[in-house]
Amino acid sequence: MGSVGVYSWQSHGNWIDQNRINGGISGIYAQESLNFNVIGNTLVNNSRGISLLTWSGNFSIFDNILMNNSEGLHMDSYTRKSTIFHNYLGNTENAIPSGSVHNWNLTYSPNLTDCSKNGNYWSDYTGHDMYKGPNQDQPGSDGIGDTPYKIDSQNWDYLPLMQWDNRTATKTDFYFDPEIAHWGQIVELLGNLTTVDNEPIQNAVVTVKAFGFAADLTTNSTGWFNASSPVWTVGKFKVTVEYAGSGQYFPSSDWEILVVKAGTSIYAKFNPNPVYPGNTCELRGILVDQFSKPIKSAILSLEYSTDYGSNWQPGGTLVTDPYGIFSKTFTVPPPPQRTYLVRISYAGSLDHEPSATVIALIVR
């Protein structure tokens, strides 16, 4: 490309994540910029992978691949301290601090898939792994180099990785339908799991946490997953979907859903009505909110009475379709019964009593 992939000048508090930048002068270039997170980028075949210059600093640079660049990380002497960890560095010159000082590792962890710990993978590291522990003084290997990796006299990676975690970097995206749900409504969670290059990941298990969806779901052949559940609690809820097989530091995605009660109305009728014994008739209706907007995937209760409402018997449930419509077909029994009262209730109504409609079915 012969250019700069991401350029920042006098910018602060931004994220640069999940980019692929190839063949430029500098993959990421920052000047007089502060407080960035640089995560999950692949920077290859550039003159410089990342350039931090002239008072830029307090960057968190992690879980990136910098490969086949002339210089992986380049800082000048005015660059402020940044933290650089869990990156793959395989370049002609992996890091050039130019007199600036940085943190090149975090705390020790024997779990090498924990991307929030340890140091970086350096392609030119020549140390051994005969010991383990925070001080690398206990017998046994742990995937961490026993001796620090020297960048220069002021910069050391004290926990260099012996090998790179080659799990696939992924994206997990999902949403709710609807995002604002009525109490007692069936809500569907839909999402997809892909690589950072948008290739679907099939037959993978993602974990849903919180709310009514706590479960493990498996992606289909196109990387999609879904679940559905009625919601019975009013409030705002945060839901997290995680994929443990991700190579990213953030292997999860978050979303919020709001569950409310609202004023509702039910309109319904029988067709035909009256009806002859032994024939069928259809109960059909619609559930709407106070703005006359249909409420889909709502669970309605159905009851009937044969004594003009003195006693009510359960008749099952109905679920509205995407247009708020519900229906049920009945076969009318023979006499002596001549009149049936049918009550349809929706507990998600804002009213103190559930929104209900009573209609009569007349048998000839």
3D shape:
elongated
Domain module tally: 3
Class inferred from helices and paired strands = mainly beta
Question: pLDDT below 50 for ≥5 consecutive residues: which ranges?
Answer: none
The value of Rg in angstroms is: 31 Å
SS elements, strand count: 33
Helix content: under 10%
Number of helical segments with 4 or more residues: 0
Distance between the termini: 82 Å
Query: How would a textbook summarize the main sheet?
Result: 5 strands, parallel
Strand order of the largest sheet: 1-4-7-10-13
Give the percentage of residues in beta strands: over 45%
Residue-averaged pLDDT: 87
Describe this structure in words.
This protein is mostly beta strands and 364 residues long. It folds into 3 domains: 154 residues, no CATH class; 91 residues, Sandwich (Immunoglobulin-like); 99 residues, Macroglobulin (MG2) domain (Immunoglobulin-like, Sandwich), CATH 2.60.40.1930. Helices cover 0% and strands 48% of the residues. The chain contains no helices and 33 strands. The strands form 9 sheets. Strands 1-4-7-10-13 form a 5-stranded parallel sheet, with no helix packed on it. The relative contact order is 0.09.
Task: Give structural attributes.
3 domains; 364 residues; Immunoglobulin-like; 5-stranded parallel sheet; mainly beta
In brief, what are we looking at here?
By secondary structure, the chain is mainly β. The protein has strands at residues 4-9, 15-17, 20-22, 26-31, 37-39, 42-44, 48-53, 60-62, 65-67, 71-75, 83-85, 88-90, 93-96, 121-122, 131-132, 138-139, 149-152, 155-157, 170-177, 180-182, 186-195, 205-209, 215-218, 224-230, 235-242, 252-260, 264-271, 280-289, 299-305, 313-319, 325-331, 339-346, 355-362.
